[in-house]
């Protein structure tokens, strides 16, 4: 690990959190099981996000899987007998998942899923809660619920439908088959597909572009999109939307942006 990379204290050996420049990296670290997510990983994720959100150095958060075989291959089935064997256990597990998903969805900084290899079931669900999804050309996506007899909560299906639309959502679930990176891009499941050997460099450059922009503007847009895309028409919190926009105009960053434009230089935004 380079000297300038800061690693956060370990919450579980299966999750690695690092700060490298303006990027907060979260690595699902269970390559021997293709990064299948276990309870300790679900518990750690919100705490890592809290740390990154509170750190002004972090401008973008990137999630990835350890190794080159998988982003996340779903839930760790080896835990099912101990952790998901009774209705009470299932309910407790679902609370962990829902809490982590909600925290990822609403964290106040842009999030990117950097996907390499397999992205299956819960792995797809994780990526749907990020803002941007970038994958390698050798990635594969699947939600095999119909092969396992699993039921999916409406919150998860709604998120998929909001991104790929009803027809593709049905195809993904009905067939339970693996989709290529090209198919995922066509459906809108991912934003970009890049060659595998260029994935990390591409994502780093992408993050640099985002990090150079005004954090308060990005947060305002993120909150507004959440309201527009996540709620029934007529129930959008217009007061919240108005508040985050006004905060941008009242910020020092707005003054800096105008000044930098007039002086023909790059702005130095501070997020305040």
CATH second-level architecture of the largest domain: Alpha-Beta Complex
Mean pLDDT: 92
In spatial order, strands of the major sheet run 1-2-3-4-6-8-11
How many structurally independent domains? 2
Distance between the termini: 31 Å
The arrangement of helices and strands along the chain is EEEHEEHHEEHEEHHHEHEHHHH
DSSP E strands, number? 11
Low-confidence stretches: none
Which structural class do the helices and strands define? Answer: alpha/beta
State the shape.
Answer: globular
The largest sheet is: 7 strands, mixed
Radius of gyration: 19 Å
What is the name of the CATH topology of the largest domain? 2-enoyl-CoA Hydratase, Chain A, domain 1
In CATH's first tier, which class of the largest domain applies?
Alpha Beta
Counted by DSSP, the helix tally is: 12
* Strand composition percent: 15-25%
Q: In the CATH hierarchy, what is the superfamily of the largest domain?
A: 2-enoyl-CoA Hydratase, Chain A, domain 1
- Helical amount among residues, as a percent range? 40-55%
């Amino acid at each position: 690990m380079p000297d300038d990379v800061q690693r956060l204290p370990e919450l579980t050996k299966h999750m690695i959190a690092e700060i490298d420049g303006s990027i907060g990296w979260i690595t699902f670290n269970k390559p021997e099981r293709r990064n299948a997510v276990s309870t300790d990983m679900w518990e750690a994720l919100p705490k890592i996000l809290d740390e990154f959100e509170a750190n002004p150095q972090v401008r973008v958060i990137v999630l990835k899987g350890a190794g080159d075989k998988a982003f996340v291959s779903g839930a760790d089935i080896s835990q099912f007998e101990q952790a998901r064997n009774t209705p009470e256990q299932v309910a407790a597990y679902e609370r962990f998942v829902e809490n982590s998903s909600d925290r990822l969805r609403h964290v106040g900084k842009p999030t990117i899923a950097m996907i390499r290899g397999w992205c299956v079931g819960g792995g797809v669900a994780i990526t749907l809660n990020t803002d941007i999804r970038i994958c390698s050309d050798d990635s594969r996506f699947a939600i095999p619920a119909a092969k396992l007899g699993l039921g999916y909560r409406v919150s998860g299906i709604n998120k998929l439908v909001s991104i790929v639309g009803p027809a593709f959502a049905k195809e993904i679930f009905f067939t339970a088959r693996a989709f290529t990176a090209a198919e995922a891009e066509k459906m809108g499941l991912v934003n970009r597909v890049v060659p595998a050997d260029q994935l990390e460099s591409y994502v780093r450059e992408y993050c640099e572009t985002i990090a150079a922009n005004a954090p308060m503007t990005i947060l305002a847009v993120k909150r507004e999109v959440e309201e527009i895309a996540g709620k029934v028409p007529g129930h959008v919190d217009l007061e919240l939307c108005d508040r985050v926009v006004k905060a941008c105009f009242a910020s020092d960053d707005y003054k800096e942006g105008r000044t930098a434009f007039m002086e023909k230089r790059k702005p130095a935004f501070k997020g305040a």
